[in-house]
Amino acid sequence: MKAIAILALAALLACGDASGRAARTTYNAGVALLGEGKLDEAEQRLLAARDLAGYDDEVRFRAAFDLAAVAVARAEAALAAQPPAADQAMAAYEKARTWLSDAVRRRPKDADARANLERVEARLLALIDEAGQGDNALEKRLDRAIAAERDLRDAARALWAGQAASGGDPLAAKDQFEAAATRQRTLAAEVGTIADLAGDEITAIGGKTEEERSDEEKVRLVQLQNLDLYVQDARKAMTDARRNLHELAGELAHQRTGAALESLKRAREQLLDPLAVLQGVAADEVELARYLAALTAHAGKDDPLPAWLTARGLGGDQIDVRARLEEVKARLQAALDAPAPGADGGAPDPKAGEAAKVKAQVAAAMPSLEEASTQMKVASDALAAEDVAAGSTAAQASLVAIATAIEQFFALRQLIDVTLAQERDVIAAITPPAEGAQALPPAERAKRVDDGVSKNRARLERMKALIAEEQDKATAPPPADPSGAAPAAPDPQQLEEQKQLFARAEALRLEADAALVALAAVAAGGKGPPALDSAKLAEAKLVELQKLFFSVIEHLKELIREQGETRDDTTSAQAEDDAGRAARLPGLIERQSTHGQVAEAIAQALASQADAAAQQGGQGGAPQGGAPQGGPTPQALGQAAQEVRSALGSMQDATTTLTQARDQAQQMSYDIGPAIDSQKTAVEHLENALRLLQPPQQDKQDKQDQQNQQQQQQPDKQDQQQQQQQSADQQLQQVREREAQREREQRERERQAGGADPVDKDW
Q1: pTM given for the model
Q2: Other Cβ atoms within 10 Å of 446 Cβ, number
Q3: Coil, strand, or helix at residue 177?
């Protein structure tokens, strides 16, 4: 880049004019300082040159190019330091990418600017890979490629929509098209690396004989071979998309980037278990259903829709989703058809019981998956015939069927949660509406009650076996010691407590079921307690059942993850056009509201635990202000509860903003940026709560050292608190890194979507 800067200097010295003399003189001074390694002074002069340049595009282009050189030099210096400052290097490379993107936007055909942008992006990706443990793995690379291609697909969608709105101007948004083509080229190179990684692993496993390969390697080889086929499809689609972007063919670019994204998803799913694939299929079907609902609501209106939002286009998306569902169905069917472990008459397989359980779950899920596939076919056929209403109805039905299938694999706590959510829906259906509110039609109310009661009774029946299974695990004798030593005898008091817990769980399950039986009888016209009383009694029993198995820290970690994902989706919605954003808003509101309900439950649980811990300390169960049984102190529990309540307030603010956006979407564009800010604040409060709750993690050697020193000295309380803080910070580091990555991606999306000058935004 230094050599190129010198060429730029010579070019400007040869072509000055009076009006731009000050800008060019300042620029030349900056280049000279850059050559001397005086980065701060060079940056100041180059920025000043841009300020003075006015309409002199030559100076603005070359200054941006050399400001990138300043940033690269700083990145290299940070990496050369001891120890290397990787965070500073990544920040510097981010600046370099911004400046080079500006240069490419101004001179799309400049080969040096394009080549340097690709180098900087490649170096940045490499640093991101090195920043997190395991991020170089094939799976992680694929995840990032999918996210990047999804952003590119959305950018192509916006470009096509803008092109259509401009009346088909062939040169509309030419610079943005070229910038997107550059991004596609960089991403295609990364996907090529992914293909090489998969090929290397295929070669390594394939070099072994069939007898030498383990069962895991045999499965992995098949997965990688299938993955490679889809990755090659993605690379071809990316090549076509890049050409379409260069040709300013918005519609084709949108189609090809979408095809590349679909192939990458299919590739990633080869390495996932079927349940994870089903969840991904369900998420995409939810998005499709929302777009169909928006299209249905638009019927009869005169205002134009985005060019991409058509029945036939969504019908093609439905075909793709169904193909993924069919693939996971085939995998599940193969699992059903496989012989049971130990069926060959050999030694009993210790995993036979677990395998039989999984087979039973698959068998229970298959009818629902067949129904989901059938409804998806109905939806795609209806959309091909431009029947949006029928397509939307079928897509919704497929979602219900997929959800029913996924439920078959739920653990006990998940099943309790979904049962409680359904029961609250039943209560909402039969609760008299507030004054002025519109009541549900009787037929709709009866359908929701009948459906909810039927599903919840089936779930409660499944809980019976799950409760017994959990009890067996909790009360099973300890496994044999590999060294041959006799295992430690179980604690009789702990065993008795476990038996009582599961006995109480079974009693609550039966009481909830009895309340639902009474509700069903009254709903059918029979006699019994008022329906609402029975519904609320069932809810109360389910809440108590949930508390028996409620792990605050696990729920808190899951809520942090889910709130972060909702914020990501809200950011994506902000970047869409009005119609695309309106289609996403109802789902975002529903999810944000659910997060608030979970946060409220966590805050209540923490407050109760704080009271119980304080009472235990006051009664001698632990020193006053201490942590009973090594858990968080009463003060920490109380502070964590307050942090979660603060998060809840931010979540409610986000819900309010999204609701206002939904209500006003038909009349005007609405900024949902404040909701994104509220969601970010909510995550920060939740992270603070987790930091307060997470106990210090010590390895076995640390514990042994503490035991050896216990007779000689007492541990210093301040040191213990510092260790706890450091441990919690380490555990939250990955969460912070993901949030930082989201921030970077958000800035990039906003830059691409808004078309604003990135230099002006950054400086």
Answers
A1: 0.63
A2: 15
A3: helix
